[in-house]
Every structure is written in C-alpha cells, then in structure tokens.
Design a protein that fits this description.
With 315 residues, the chain is an alpha/beta fold. Helix content is 37%, strand content 14%. The longest helix is centred in the N-terminal third of the chain and has 39 residues. 39% of the residues are buried.
Amino acid sequence: MKHENAMNARTDAELHHLSNAHLDALEEETIFILRETAAAFERPTLLFSGGKDSLVMLKCAEKAFGAGGLPYPLLMIDTGHNFREVTDFRDFRAQELGAELIVRSVEDSMKRGTVRLAHPGESRNVHQSVTLLEAIEEFRFDALIGGARRDEEKARAKERIFSHRDSFGQWQPKAQRPELWSLFNTRLQPGEHFRVFPISNWTELDVWQYIARENIALPSIYYTHKREVVDRRGLLVPVTELTPPKEGEEVVIRDVRFRTVGDITCTCPVESDAATPEQIVIETLAAEVSERGATRMDDKTSDASMEKRKKDGYF
C-alpha cells in the first residue's frame, strides 16, 4: 500500500511538472510575440475587453515588460451592450497597471452615420468592425494585438500569428505570409496593418490552467452565480432589458457562469456550479462543445459567419 501511494504521488508530481512545462512554453512564446510586436511596429495597441483571454495576455505583457512598463496603449471597442461587471473590471485593471486605455464606441459610429442598424434591436456586435477601423485610422495603429485562439472557431484556426490586413482592413486568407521557425514577416505597405495573436496556440483549457497557476483575477461572471435565463434553441439566454423573454418562454433561475463574454445580445452562459479556476479546469476537460459554439448566438447563423466578418475587418 505504501509503495502504491508513493507511486501515485510520483505520478501526480510528474503530471504537475508536465503541465507547468507546457504552460511555461506557451507563456514564453506569448512573451516573445509581445516583445517582437513592440520592436517591429511603430504604433501597436493591445485589444483589451476585460475578458479572460485579454487578461491572460495582459499578465504575459506584465512579465514581458515589467509592471508599469507596457509600451503600447490598451484599446476597447465598446458596443454599449457589454456586461457591466466586465467593463468595470476592464477599467479597474487598466488603472491598476497605470496603462493608457482608449475606448471607442459603436454608439459614436452610429451618431456619425457610419453604422446604421437594420432595426433598434439588432445586435451591435458585428458593427464593431466599423468602429475598429475608424480607431485604426484615428490613431494610425499598425498592429493590433488580440486574444483570439485557434481552438475557438474554424475561421480563427486559419489565422497566422501575425495576420496581415490590407489597406481596407480586410483579411485575405490566401494573402497571408508563411510563419516557419517562428520567423515573422512584418513588412507593411502604407495603410496596411497587422492583427497579432500571441495566444493563438493556447486552448481554453490552457487559459484556465494558467489563470489558476498565476492566480489571475477575473470578472465575477466567469464563476457560478444565479441568473434568470430562458432556454432558446438549446442556449441559455440571459434575461436582461436587451434580451427580454419572448412570448411563451419560461423564465427560470439557474446556477450559471460565462465561458466567454461579449455583447449581451449574443452571449449566453452555461449551467455550472464551478466557483474556482480549478473547478472550471475539470469542467473544461469534460466539455464536448467549444466555448463559442456553446455560448454565442451570433455564431449560429451563416450570414454572420466568423470568416465573413473577419474579411470585413472584425477582430
């Protein structure tokens, strides 16, 4: 029995070492890309929503440049329909770091007439592309660092780490540059820019393991809480002023958490009683559907496909 217990303890220690080695390698790659971006571009910015992926990137940026030493501003494109818990945490974290936070709003684009909704209830999520391109032009950003991962969605799986955008801000899959042996071609023509994805090779599980290891604080809605929802086509739609129940739908209170956060009009929670990163790691190991597939209403329709949106300038 003592021999068996010793073997089990050794196995657990070996698994822990392997897990840490894996996270160390991902962190090292991310830090390298963040530093490479700072060195290769004149006016980079880090897209920062206050969500878990951007908070992981921010933690790596702290390690890359030191506290208070972030060499580029943070940029948030706000639909005006974001969860308050997330935007409050965004502001808190930026202030805590002493980082410059630039917020540009879809509502301002609507006032300028560059964004026009088909109807008042239309989701503003897809229209972030317009506001983002306007911010790029305003600040002349030549690199935008984002938290997209290849495991999230099939169009994002096609991305390079340094993803070229043409002078219209569009992504052309056939025009991307090869990335062999971590060598990146960052040459730009006037008006072009790059989207840079330092955590491309991370998975949802990696993110949560890293959050647990580094004790990264997150907005509270990532953990279990009680919320009014309705079951709509297999998704738990949160009941809010923006997403009221439809006729005949039953409002119920469930223990839920958000796997990903975004515009209220298209982001759904999942049932969960996970209150810690470690518990979420266990849930993630058992998950059979990607976080976007399980929680994003806008990814369910072909007209709003991620690849089309990316070609139009989306994140």
